[in-house]
Amino acid sequence: MKIFVCIKHVPDTAANIKLVGDNGFEDSECKFIVNPYDEYGLEEAVSLVEKEGGEVVVVTVGKGAATATLRSAMAMGAARAIHVQTQGQFLDSTLTAKALKAAMDQDGAADLIFTGKGSVDTEGAQTQYRLAAAMGLPVVNEVSRLTIDGQKATMEKEIGGGEREVLEMPLPGIIGATKGLNEPRYPKFPDIMKAKKKKIQEMAIGDLGIDENAGASQLVKLEAVPERSGAKMLEGSVQEQVAQLIKVLREDEKII
Amino acid sequence: MENYLIVKSIVMFVALVAAFGYFFLKVKRLYQIMMAVDGVVEKPVDRISDRIKVLFTDVLGQTNVRRKLMPGISHTLIFFGFLAIQVHSLELMIRGVFPSFDLLHIIPSIYTGYLFIADILAFFVLVGFAYALYRRTVIKPEYLTMGRDANLIILFTCVIIISFHFINAFQTLMPLEAGAASHSGIFPISGLLVSIFGLSGLSQGQVIFGYELSYFIHIGTILGFLIYIPGSKHLHLLAAAPNVFVKPLEMEKAILKTDIEDEEAETFGLGKCSEFNWKNVLNLYACTECGRCEELCPASGTGKPLSPKKILHDFKVDLFDQADKLLGDEKDEIEPLMREGSPVTDDVLWSCTTCRSCEDICPVNNQHLDFVIEMRKHQVLMEANFPAEMQETFTNIENQGNPWGFSADTRADWCKGMDVPLISDKPDADVLYFVGCAGSFDDRGKKIAQATARVLQKAGVNFAILGPEESCNGDMARRAGNEYLAQMLIQQNAEVFNQYKPKMILTGCPHCYNVIKNEYPQFDASYPVVHHTEYMLDLANQGRLTINRKEMGDITFHDSCYLGRWNNIYQAPRELITRVNSGGNLVEMDKNFSKGMCCGAGGARMFMEETIGERINNVRAAEAVATGAKTVCAACPFCATMLNDGILETDTVIPVKDIAEIMDEATS
After folding, report:
1. In angstroms, rounded to a whole number, what is the distance separating the alpha carbons of residues B14 and B411?
2. Matching CATH topology for B273-382 and B389-540?
3. Residue B386: which of B351, B336, B350 has the closest Cα?
4. 4Fe-4S ferredoxin-type domain: which residues (chain B) (predicted)?
5. B388 contacts A183? CB cut-off 8 A
6. Does the CA dihedral B565-B569-B571-B572 come out positive or negative?
7. What pLDDT does A253 receive?
């Protein structure tokens, strides 16, 4: 079984992002990680290959620094990596899908492709669909349970209200993984060391015939989320606090 | 009689050769096992003269054993009495083979004096055993292993001593050969047996029979003992002294630096018994299962499956079970220490808080933590097997340099508006305040860091912090077995230290203090380190702090493991508390100083669930409440949090304050 896992090199959500200019940010001081949703896909792929045999190849479209992120992914069990290099962090998802397709086509057909349900930096959740369209493959997103039976994948996804949808899909196909699918492993130390020597095939996005700046959408501006104003603490006895609360709700907030 | 002596010579010769031969082979095998293991011992056995001194104080002086007074006195009596009769026993053995050999004849005055003393000391062995029996049958401490092994040894030894006295008693009545010196009057205790049992009325034949019978019981039991020792827990008779001889001479210790860059290494940490180092093996031999470690272990005491004594016992059993493979060069066949059905389970391994009370109290100076931490290393690095909740903690530390995962660049936010300079702006600062993760990010810890900074400012100390250049110190990752992550953090901080070359590093957290002081030198970063308890006492002594004494009521101080047992700092915080409190006493909890009980947070336990037994912090908090103190004083941000959470479980409301906060309130 050959499985591609598309991963994205994203800033750690815990990191404070310092904006630079209109649509950039300071990424040299910022810790980058494997997009957490992609890790569910990666874990699933690695466990499948551990059981059934085969190969997991991670593919990313991102800046040069994404090498470190690819090494982390390979420490978790991917055999090798393909890195389509870009200049910027925010690539239009049409182009990302195109680049992923081109890279995977060069490498040869796969039985299954995993992505995350979306990336934690741009939260676009577009790439898996665009990739499926470009490749002419079926796609199911937000998968939290998966069984593979021959050429068929049976999947479950949460659809709200505690309901689950069960879907079947012929393989090959694309699966967008989400939380609940598994618990991504913590790499063993020898695997971290081995990952340092695993092969990363690098190519510039331009070499795949794609112009990085010719996306269908453009990032115009980045703005910091305004900090939430502090909570108002009510002081005094319970009676006093209740009286104040009613006053605030009536006069300041005009709710009652 | 002539014929009898010839037969006796032959019997004794055969028995001695057989028993000593067997003993020799057993000991040789024990030695071979010790030499066959592959583990690394970081420090060579140096400073021989200091070690010889230790033999005098700890072994001959029995100081370690007597830290538990009554059993210690009992052990001292048994030890000296048993040691004292050995010359006599040896003489008897030689005389059994060569009947004409008689030390009393060769060195009459010396041997007479010796016999006189030995006779008295031997009797004290029985006094010692009387207490031991009382302890085992009436007191019955839970931590004491009540096995057949121990009872058999007591029986053996009592038989040896009683037969010793009877030999001497009969000896005084034996017919004297021409020119032989008389034994009468040199056995103060054995002599009493003659009158008590009316032995002087016996015929000469009966006396000789009694003597010979006592002789064979005595020597027979000693030889039986000799055969029995190497396979029993009383192997400590042989291994304790060498074990004490090679013990770490300093109480401060560093965790073994694993060479994780060794590309040849197939495994890391301690996975199976062949990966012990020779000191570990000697530890196993030296353990006599006295249970003092278990008595003080905060995990054992709160219903966790961990007992330091039991770990060592189980490892000894495993080592002996697999010794044939170890010695037969089939190391690949050796099964892992933690395997299906192994008594050392995940819950055992991860219950340890690394408080070191086991090592501190151990009368033979065993290093229990060396086993625990190396095993954790193996489980994390090789098996990725650790409590699930630690994964997020490891990831947080890796990504943001702190266990909670706060953004690393907010590390200096705790002192916003306090005018605390960064060392990058003030490289000539006298003191580099290493704030630590708790002080930087945790709400409780931040208040302690702020109090510390205020005290420093009041004293006019020229200090600075690293701010975002500071990262987690690596203590927690290291004690959780993540040596890879720990070394990354330590190296990162070490490089920053080496860049600024601080004149002195001040820490508020005992974990930072310990690891920077004792483990950073492994990574080429050796700087003077001081904990805020000692530093504030220094400032007060220099008159740089104006103390406004206040009535605070009784205060109890909780010893942090990493200040006390790991670094011997007990007095400084107590001294400060006494100085600033004008109304109230320093009251001690039941367990204090070197026997102080852990708060439950050490060894990365702060970030693990505690689901088995009682919560350690609740038990400790209840002890603090029981003192009736108005304030609980801690000197570690983790202790403060743990104790506060514990006190919330009681009906009492008392504040937990860090010593820095108390000093902040009491100074201007």
Report:
1. 77
2. no
3. B350
4. 278-308, 341-372
5. yes
6. negative
7. 83
Q: For residue A226, what pLDDT band results from cuts at 50, 70 and 90? A: confident
User: Helix, strand, or coil here: A162?
Assistant: coil
CA distance A122 to A116: 13
Of A12, A31, A192, the CB nearest to B484: A192
Contact check, Cβ <8 Å, A183/B405 = no
Residues B623/B597, Cβ–Cβ less than 8 Å: yes
Taking an 8 Å cut-off on Cβ atoms, the answer to whether B394 and A33 are in contact is no
- ipTM given for this complex: 0.90
What kind of fold does domain B546-666 have according to CATH?
A: Rossmann fold (3.40.50)
pLDDT, average across residues A192-216? 95
Query: Nearest-CA distance from B306 to chain A in Å?
Result: 25
**Does A29 touch chain B if contact means CB atoms closer than 8 Å?**
yes
- Angle (nearest 5°) at CA B464 between B417 and B416: 15
Angle B518-B360-B636 from CA coordinates, rounded to 5°? 55
| CATH code of the domain made up of B389-540 | 3.40.50
**Residues in chain B within 8 Å Cβ distance of A12:** 399-400
Cis-peptide, bond into residue A172, ω within 30° of zero = yes
pLDDT at position B399 over 70: yes
pTM, two decimals, is 0.94
- What was the pLDDT predicted at B179? 61
Residue from the list B382, B386, B395 with its beta carbon closest to the beta carbon of A189: B382
Contact predicate B632/B656, CB 8 Å: yes
Query: pLDDT category, B57, cuts 50, 70, 90?
Result: very high
Domain ranges of chain B: 2-36+68-231, 273-382, 389-540, 546-666
Q: Which CATH superfamily hosts domain A2-208?
A: HUPs (3.40.50.620)
% chain B with pLDDT above 90: 90
Q: Which amino acid is at B566?
A: W
| Cα separation, B606 vs B623, whole angstroms | 20
Q: Which of B96, B114, B284, B123 shows the shortest CA–CA distance to B190?
A: B123
CATH number for B273-382 (one of 1.10.1740, 1.25.40, 1.10.1060, 2.60.40): it is 1.10.1060
Give the C-alpha separation, B302 to B490, whole Å.
33
Q: How many CB atoms lie within 10 A of CB B456?
A: 23
Question: In chain A, what are the domain boundaries?
Answer: 2-208, 229-256
Distance CA B381, CA B479 (A): 13
H/E element, B419:
none
